[in-house]
Design goal:
By secondary structure, this protein is α+β, with helices and mostly antiparallel strands. Helix 2 packs across helix 3.
Length: 132
């Protein structure tokens, strides 16, 4: 390497007492660079807000401890709420009964299950091949 050419140092090799290096493409001035340990985005990306349906789903499926007889079990809140509504309806609360019937209609609770068998076909197989 000739002594006539200026030696270009990498930015991480520079010390404050060193002569300034060539500023240009991909070589920012030392004073404008991030300091060691400093983030380029200190606040970070803002959190996105959950949609209402997602928040409601999370709340309804959060566990709650329910006493059933002598046992305590953790169940999703939606299951516990349905059990409470059923118990109120069985005690004679007509509003709870109407609400349960309405929910059952909306979600197909009273529909008869459709048979998956469309048609039955009988096939006889002759293992010896005599009737061809």
């Amino acid at each position: 390497m000739d002594n006539d050419e200026p030696q270009i140092r990498e930015p991480h090799d520079l010390r404050p007492e060193d002569p300034p290096y060539e500023v240009g493409y991909r070589r920012p001035p030392i004073a404008t660079r991030f300091k060691k340990g400093q983030s380029g985005n200190p606040k970070g990306r803002p959190r996105t807000r959950k949609a209402f349906a997602a928040m409601l789903g999370d709340a309804l499926h959060a566990p709650v401890r329910v006493r059933e007889g002598d046992q305590v079990r953790a169940r999703p809140k939606i299951e516990a709420a349905i059990d409470v509504a059923i118990n109120h309806a069985l005690r004679g609360d007509m509003r709870a009964l109407i609400k349960l019937i309405d929910l059952a209609h909306k979600h197909g609770g009273f529909e008869s299950p459709e048979s998956e068998i469309i048609h039955i076909r009988e096939t006889i197989v002759d293992p010896k091949g005599e009737y061809e």
